[in-house]
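Worked Example 4.2. Consider the chain below.
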Amino acid sequence: MSQTMEYKGYNGSVLYSAEDKLLHGRIVGIRDTVSYEGTDVRSLEKNFKSAVDEYLKFCKAEGKTPDTPFKGSFNVRLTPDLHKRAALYAEEHSRKLNAVVHDALQEYLSHAG
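Applying the procedure from the previous section yields the following structure tokens:
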């Protein structure tokens, strides 16, 4: 079961507020905050798509380039020891640290169901 929706290359979270009895979410993977809500799944999906369309329209009107979700670049914070071990491993195997991290994530996620 997925906990996200996709539209025009953007992913939106699906959350439930028991207090408000509403479904809600936000576009994930971008710096800008774009949120939406709905009283049922159909209205949540509709409002998510409308939020994406409005975000793109707003960016165009402002002459702003919309944030691109999941550009393939992010910062990873490690303990100094793990950073050292990974850097030494990369050096010893004539690889770039990014390639080592990429392969480690690929391996981990291939087993993560």
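The radius of gyration is 19 Å. Residues 41-62 form the longest helix (22 residues). Compare this with Example 4.1 before moving on.
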